[in-house]
Give the backbone structure.
Amino acid sequence: MTQSKKRKGILGGLALVAVAIGLYWSLAVAPPDAYQGEVQRIMYLHLPSILTAYLSYFLVFIGSGMYLWKREKRDDLLAHAAAELGVLFTALTIIEGSIWGKPTWGVWWTWDARLTLTAILLLIYAGYLMLRSLIDDENRAASAAAILGIIGFLDIPLIHMSVYWWRTLHQPPSILRPDKVPWENVHPAMLTALTISFVGFLLLYFYLLSLRYRVGEMRQEIKALRLERGA
Amino acid sequence: MALLKQTYLLLCKDLLLELRRRDSLLTMFFFGTLLLFVFHFSFDLAPDKIAEMAPALLWLAFLFTGTLGLAQLFQAERENHCLDALLLSPLDRGALFLAKTSFNLILMLLVELVVMPLFWILFNLSAWNLLPQLFLVTLLGTIGFCVLGTIMSALTLRARARELLLPLVLFPLMIPVILATIRCMESVLRHGEFGEAVSWLKLLVGFDVIFITVGVLIFDWVLES
């Protein structure tokens, strides 16, 4: 118990340091963007947020599949924790994007493919959390959520395709372009800032995930204790 | 083949029940018609605009009536522990899924077969010759809706406030179907043919095939939940 607490503490500390260095690099070291100016710096948060959110949804999918297969409570706890964090990071992405969009595009929100896709993801996984909370029987809630976790994830490519055919207005990717290697079209300091920021977000994500997972575990323990006392 | 035979028997059971009670079909039909009136009062539908808006309005009406049907889909099974009895019998759960999906599909198609021509009459649309193509698109879209709808309806079976929860989890997942059907219908109404919308049609078929397969495979777990 104390061992895992210590590990969590170290992970949290590392996350804090990495996010701090990332922020310093993003705000002070990296040069302002040639066209967008200072506001572009929000990208150093925006990109890591959405990548972390996608990682989260992938973990929901894995946890859900494993739960249906092996019926182990820990897989369900993982999926639940990941879904909550996914919703959190998706919401962050949308908020950051809006703050960036207003000065750059002139609007808070536009019905572009990527924006729409992100918003739909938020709705799907908010639905996932609602479904969980509205089923009283715990095992039934876990199974139902696991199925939605799988179907939702399978649906993402289809939604992706359809909203892209529907419309595209978003910035074309500026770093991972097919015609050039990354370090040729982006200032190296920008790339470093983004990388550090991404590592920081990943550490922070896993720290939060371990905390949220532990909360789930503790709920189980409390429930077991209550049953014991009651008997 | 056992799967198809079981599906057929289960479907007959549901159809017989519906034939005797007519709860869902009549409610859905009147609700669909009612929506057409609501649309008429809500929008300023000038004759030149109506062809542009028809696909979206029609599909909205189908979505809402379909949700109404889905909420009732497992009503018979909820009463008197019928679901437990069905689960105890040596049935393939995939057959149960296919039967429920086809039952809901039949209800929705019957409603759509009436509501679509009614739309044409009420809003004075002239393109009667395009109805077969539009109906093909509607069929593919409705299959997708019923497939995911049946899964979600079963998932929310034991949830509190399930009628509210159902559209909440279902509609975001339905976005590809909604987009694809509306684009296809638009293309047909505008150019008289599918043209570039053929790729949307393929997307629809893909969606249907993927989720029918997924549904048959996972319905075992769906009903356990």
